[in-house]
Amino acid sequence: MTKPETETQDADSQQLQSLRKALHRADHNYYVQDAPTIPDAEYDRLFRELQALEAQHPDWVTPDSPTQRVGGKPLDAFAAVRHAVPMLSIRTETDTESSGAQAFDARVRKELELTEAAAPVEYVAELKFDGLAINLRYEAGVLVQAATRGDGENGEDVTQNIRTVGQIPLQLVSAQHLAMPVPQVLEVRGEVYMRRDDFEALNERQRERIAQGEKGEKTFVNPRNAAAGAVRQLDPAIAARRPLSFFAYGVGEVAPHSVGRLFATHMELLQALKAWGFPVADATRVVRGAEELIAFHQHIGQTRDQLPYDIDGVVYKVNSLALQQRLGFVSREPRWAVAHKYPAQEQMTTVLAIDVQVGRTGKLTPVAKLSPVFVGGVTVTNATLHNEDEARRKDVRVGDTVIVRRAGDVIPEVVSVVQDQADAQAAHAQRALFTMPATCPVCGSAAVREEGEADHRCSGGLFCNAQRKQAILHFAQRRAVEIEGLGDKLVEQLVDANVIRTLPDLYRLGFTALASLERMADKSAQNIVDALQKSKHTTLQRFLFGLGIRHVGESTAKALARHFGALDAIMDATVEQLLQVNDVGPIVAQSIRTFFEQPHNREVVEQLRACGIHWEEGTGDSDAAKPLAGLTFVLTGTLPTLGRDDAKDRIEAAGGKVSGSVSKKTSYVVAGSEAGSKLAKAQELGLTILDESALLEMLQDHR
Ligand code: IVH
Fold first, then answer.
1. Which protein residue has the closest C-alpha to ligand 1 atom 14?
2. Which of 83, 93, 128, 151 for a ligand 1 pocket mutation test, highest count of atoms within 8 Å of Cβ?
3. Is-above-0.85 flag for pTM?
4. Are 255 and 184 in contact (CB under 8 A)?
5. Is 128 an annotated catalytic residue?
6. At what angle do helices 692-701 and 644-653 cross, to 10 degrees?
7. CA of residue 204 to ligand 1 center, whole Å
8. Domain ranges within the chain, ordered by starting residue
9. 163: how many CB neighbours lie within 10 A of its CB?
10. What pLDDT is stored for residue 643 in this prediction?
């Protein structure tokens, strides 16, 4: 016997509600919380069950059903939407320096008639997302309309496309426990954007489509353009394939009670938005006064590259909603907010050539020569392509239009080739593929790439003029022996004219040889002679660093000098002995060994000494010979007779190390009375614990 019609209907309707609820919750956990709660297969099963139910009851399909995220029919045009509350823009502080933040704080204080003695103003500091503004209208907690900003008064109805964005709730969280129930009418404003990884993947797919000859397809120049294109896509099925994300940062119409009635501050509002199910950026902070605004601007500026999405600045907003109201607007821009930008980090330009440069150690680096472009605050004409694999992966060819990126102090890089249209792709295909030359472009020696290495190297060593020049510049630099006035140009001239071939040749340069160089005045020649003379008195550390041994930077040179005290000891040290030095590992030790095994390197050292280069030598504090060498101690609590510094000095004098924190690497923990958490941690790790007398015994034993 079949059940009566109405009963089945009731059961279906209940099932439909519970499926929707489960899917809404899963969407929220997956897209907004980034913490999926059900497996994909389970999600798909629930989704299909809901689709089947809706197919049986087409009149039950509502726009907020999770099935509607996939997008409906293509449109001819977007309908116009008049915003209930105009969508304003924010004033942009074009001054990208700290003074930009100061100027804003000063304006706010002046407007509020605050005296200098008055407390700092509280602000919310947010990120300025690089996407497009959207207004989401919810009635009774259900998304009913999404509109672009348009001219601020009238936007376009893009609801169909916005429904496809997983991070945008179709239905709001309305749990009883919430401090603030969702208002009857709630317009949420925020930014629709595309994450960088999603952008890369999208462009990859687009490139494949173009390659397969699909008409009308293109790649996107940056994530913002891709996001804007997706939102304004007339075919929602296409929009659904474009991975978009969302951050909420404010509200439009809120009824029946206004925002000002519901919340005291902007931060409270953001917290409520988060509780209702919207993504709010974690970086958002409440700060006080200009100094903290500056600190935020700087901190975000330094860390923005680690964000998974692009920002083009930060936004400061007065936190108190009452003060916001008092401050009001000037010509459609609120006085209580400002956007503080960063210099643009990416620009488009063309590749004029790809050169191969030879580094000091012979590394060959392909470098794109660019049509000059202003990016990240400087004019860029070169961008590294790192190595052959990288150049191939990006497939940069001479003549291509490329995106160049310069972030912070990082060396400029080619991000990608712009192939936004079929004709750009065709032109690119016509151009020659970059290949690494088989020989060094400077000396003609074979360019070799050893197995497992990413780099090609010139095999010419100091026979190669490029390596020679850089070896000399490295030796002459300020942090090495410092030969003042011996710069790029002069070294270039000297090496090219074959006046100097090796480091010792430098010290054989006389006034006459220098003064006879082109464009060299007598006075400058004399200055170089003096500088050479002065550089002869140096330190072991500087000399060692100046030799340019692979992997021996300044701090390793310092450690070696300190440990061994004398150059001969280093030149003759075995790998085992070198490994005794702090921070010297097997690779560094082997590199030092290999360097001094080469007769010509020893010869260079001897000749330099013969030319008069000298430094003070000592016996070094080679800890290896000392009793507590290699042991790490942690001191905790009060020792009966030894003071903390006393104990530390004696351990160090015996070659041991004293560390402030307990770890698996700690050899011994020396505990006195009232030892605290360090002792507990040591016990937990099963370390050996000594008392003072045991320590003294160890020191004694090793006398
Ligand atoms: S607040 C009344 N906050 O920047 C203030 N805008 O002109 C209204 N934007 O296109 C905007 N991040 O889409 C605000 N954290 C943020 C923002 C932000 C990006 C965009 C916004 C608009 C432009 C401001």
1. 249
2. 128
3. no
4. yes
5. yes
6. 30
7. 30
8. 3-68, 91-341, 346-429, 459-620, 625-701
9. 24
10. 86
